[in-house]
Amino acid sequence: MKGIILAGGSGTRLYPITKGISKQLMPIYDKPMIYYPLSTLISAGVREILVITTPEDADAFRRLLGTGSDWGVMIDYAVQPKPEGLAQAFIIGEDFIGGDSVALVLGDNIFEGAGLTEILGEIRDVEGGAIFAYEVSDPQRYGVVAFDEHGTATSIEEKPAEPKSPYAVVGLYFYDNDVVDIAKTISPSERGELEITSVNEEYLRRGALRVHRLHRGDVWLDTGTIDSMSEASAYVEVIQKRTGTVIGSPEVAAYREGLISSAELASLGKAALKSGYGQYLIEAARD
């Protein structure tokens, strides 16, 4: 399975900060925002990753992430000239995807939790599509999935004025190779974008979409606003300080996946020791 991190967009909800820096490069507590979705992909067994960003920010992402060799993965880059929808990622990444299945994660989404980790361990060979739903208080802001009495998904709507359920579709998607052709055939929405909801609707129409409902113990954070970024930083800080474990670390994710050794993890930790982040890596290498 290949992986794509969509880290484009103009970040208008974070102006004026994002006039000078991509939001996915901004810090969530002690690490760049993009580290969190990158860690999710590594934990899902993805070893080849395409980062899609804006032409203006591409060099900064390259400086930060490099080739991925420090984490035992391969990272490549592509640009999205202007934000024309999440599904555009599959068209931009067509050559990268080749004949493989693909996971797409949004660059401003954070995932954490034992239930999610368990599902990621089982989802590495996907047939059709697999997405995740999370119960929220304001579902009208998101794509919304409704279920029948048996827990089977019956509909998906993009930002409905009157949601049929409280379950939002989160920014993590797994598809087989059909997704490339599906993305090419969907029409732009009223706001001129290729909606990921249209992709999910097609898989649902085919009877090939699995929807995993995340448990209350799992955490999904969409860090697209100043308030949500602050809340996410506070959450990461509290969990890391109270438990001594690190959240959203590609180094630790790579170590747990067997991509790097404990000695390599400790070496990466020593390079970041002055910031405090490195201490978490060193402790993880000892466990």
TrEMBL record:
Gene3D superfamilies: Spore Coat Polysaccharide Biosynthesis Protein SpsA, Chain A (3.90.550.10). It catalyses: dTTP + alpha-D-glucose 1-phosphate + H(+) = dTDP-alpha-D-glucose + diphosphate. Keywords: Magnesium, Metal-binding, Nucleotidyltransferase, Transferase. Its EC number is 2.7.7.24. InterPro entries: G1P_thy_trans_s (IPR005907), NTP_transferase_dom (IPR005835), Nucleotide-diphossugar_trans (IPR029044). GO terms for biological process: hexose metabolic process; polysaccharide biosynthetic process. Its cofactor is Mg(2+). Pfam families: NTP_transferase (PF00483). It comes from the Bacteria. It is an enzyme of class 2 (transferase). The keyword Metal-binding applies. Residues 2-236 form the Nucleotidyl transferase domain. GO terms for molecular function: glucose-1-phosphate thymidylyltransferase activity; metal ion binding. Pathway: Carbohydrate biosynthesis; dTDP-L-rhamnose biosynthesis. Belongs to the glucose-1-phosphate thymidylyltransferase family. Catalyzes the conversion of glucose-1-phosphate and dTTP to dTDP-glucose and pyrophosphate. Involved in the biosynthesis of the dTDP-L-rhamnose which is a component of the critical linker, D-N-acetylglucosamine-L-rhamnose disaccharide, which connects the galactan region of arabinogalactan to peptidoglycan via a phosphodiester linkage. Catalyzes the formation of dTDP-glucose, from dTTP and glucose 1-phosphate, as well as its pyrophosphorolysis. This is Glucose-1-phosphate thymidylyltransferase. It comes from Corynebacterium qintianiae. The gene is rfbA.
